[in-house]
Design brief:
- The chain has 186 residues and is of the alpha+beta class.
- The chain has a six-stranded mixed beta sheet. It has a two-stranded antiparallel sheet with strand order 1-2.
- The longest helix is centred in the first third of the chain and has 16 residues.
- The N terminus is likely disordered.
Length: 186
């Protein structure tokens, strides 16, 4: 967290670092490095198969979407084909199912590495923070697969830290062979 208070919201500096934009959200100031740390934590949870902890990052009304570039980024899942369109109940079910030996697509578990880059943060609607990042997920399970695209987040800040109200992954690859193997969480 930046110690400097910047009234105009233009920048916040730390000793030895370059200025980072501050987002003023109601009475809450947020630094991009705070959001980056949260996204890195999420990636670490997924790579370590701490899926219950990952699911706990979502708000009670949280949603998780995955779709290709053929779907408009604001499209609701009722109007287009999504690979994944989960609400909180389905997120919990997906997590539980991935831990079971009967989930043959993920038993034994894939090895993954999530890479998050080019994080951008803007004010969202009402109490939300909008964050966008480039995402590359390398996966090894009998062969190497790579999923890449953009992840768009709607985040809220709670006493416990940031929580995900919506995560929307837009996959850039048009290769149906690898997309049909999406049994991991991006």
């Amino acid at each position: 967290m930046c110690n400097a208070t910047v009234a105009d919201g233009s920048a916040c500096t730390r000793p030895g670092s370059t200025p980072t934009p501050r987002i003023e959200l109601m009475e809450m100031a947020v630094d991009r490095p705070e959001i980056e740390d949260f996204l890195f934590q999420e990636a670490e949870l997924l790579d370590n198969w701490q899926l219950h902890e990952w699911g706990a990052l979502f708000t009670d009304d949280g949603r998780y979407f995955v779709h290709g570039t053929n779907v408009p980024v604001t499209a609701p899942p009722e109007s287009a084909l999504f690979y994944i369109a989960d609400d909180q109940v389905r997120i919990r079910e997906r997590v539980s199912r991935l831990y079971k030996r009967l989930a043959i697509a993920e038993y034994p578990h894939s090895r993954t590495r999530h890479f998050v880059s080019n994080v951008r943060v803007t004010p969202g609607d009402e109490d939300e923070i909008a964050a966008t990042c480039n995402l590359v997920v390398h996966r090894w399970r009998d062969r190497a697969d790579a999923f890449f695209g953009v992840a768009r987040y709607r985040l809220v800040k709670s006493p416990e830290g940031f929580r995900i109200r919506e995560k929307r992954c837009v996959i850039d690859c048009d290769n149906l062979q690898s997309q049909s193997r999406i049994s991991i969480i991006l």
